[in-house]
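Interim report, section 4.2 (structural modelling).
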Amino acid sequence: AQTVTQSQPEMSVQEAETVTLSCTYDTSESNYYLFWYKQPPSRQMILVIRQEAYKQQNATENRFSVNFQKAAKSFSLKISDSQLGDTAMYFCAFMKLGGQGGSEKLVFGKGTKLTVNP
Amino acid sequence: DGGITQSPKYLFRKEGQNVTLSCEQNLNHDAMYWYRQDPGQGLRLIYYSQIVNDFQKGDIAEGYSVSREKKESFPLTVTSAQKNPTAFYLCASSTGQGVNQPQHFGDGTRLSIL
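Predicted structure of the assembly:
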């Protein structure tokens, strides 16, 4: 079974600075996706960024980028130029591809609470 | 706009009572999911359905039941067998085709015990 570990329960950063959230995972699969979801105080889950395991290039979405180290099974999220609206819980998630059933089940980490201070 | 609608936003359950949480999507997605979120626990999968009239247990299915009679709807019933139902429940959907398609989430239902 896959597991996802987020070792930082809480983090804080000053507005306009850069912060990195850590995520490691354990799997024997070779074909999978990794995601970062954001959950603001409104509790809605919002997709931030995704990475295909077969791609060596790190994914980037505006101020959000990842550092994907497949051999180390590490998938960290970097937020540049932090904004007050980035304050939220951030969840790392793993999705196995293919196999019997083929359903896109997600396995989540326990989350990191990020606070951006003015 | 397409999306996922969960209702009600807040729900209260009496001891020994079954309650049903609604989840409707107009994204034409084949797959739908139910997650439970507890403080410090992240999201855990309760049930999922890849297609109409079919569903599978997730990691914490005991005390819950689902149905999938229509593509758009995937209601979750929290039965009296679920002894600790107080949690935030999230419904999600995806295309089910497994090709770089993330799950889309509803706004959630908070269930509490009276």
